[in-house]
Write a structure and sequence with these properties.
This protein is mostly beta strands. The chain is 0% helix and 38% strand. The protein has no helices and ten strands.
Length: 147
């Protein structure tokens, strides 16, 4: 997929939407389209990111901050089990790269454009049926169903 190109939504169902906070995320919305178990060991979060602002959005705002994050990926998101009070970080490969959608280093997401992304996490216990999506710099989305 080419950056700045309107991408088809991963699903017509929107489970939750988080909105950017602060000026560099103004107008940016992230719609959670799927949160599903892939196996007994992994969970995949699928989202559609829309730049509803008037300025281009650098993909780096999706990477979060701190040691757990990778620039230019959708690694700034964590899943929280509010009952067990556990936080799940994106999985890493053997080179310590996020197992998630990489974004182009040279381009921004233009105003009005959207793109899809996926992030893979370790799976919570089988009795967990919903999680909170916590994306660094965005509002929280609680009670997102895990299928």
């Amino acid at each position: 997929m080419v950056a700045n190109e309107a991408a088809p939504a991963q699903s017509s169902t929107v489970l939750a939407t988080v909105h950017g906070t602060g000026p560099e995320r103004s107008g940016v919305a992230i719609a959670v389209t799927s949160l599903r178990r892939d196996s007994s060991t992994t969970v995949t979060l699928a989202v559609t990111i829309t730049n509803g602002g008037s300025e281009p959005m650098s993909y780096s705002v999706l990477a979060g901050s701190g040691l757990k994050y990778s620039s230019m990926t959708a690694s700034g998101v964590t899943l929280i089990d509010p009952v067990a009070k556990l936080r799940y970080y994106p999985l890493r490969d053997t080179d310590n790269n996020c197992v998630c959608t990489p974004f182009p280093f040279t381009e921004d997401l233009s105003p009005g454009a959207r793109t899809d992304a996926i992030v893979t996490f370790p799976a919570p216990p089988k009795n967990v049926s919903s999680l909170t999506v916590n994306w660094d710099g965005f509002t929280l989305a609680g009670g997102v169903p895990l299928s």
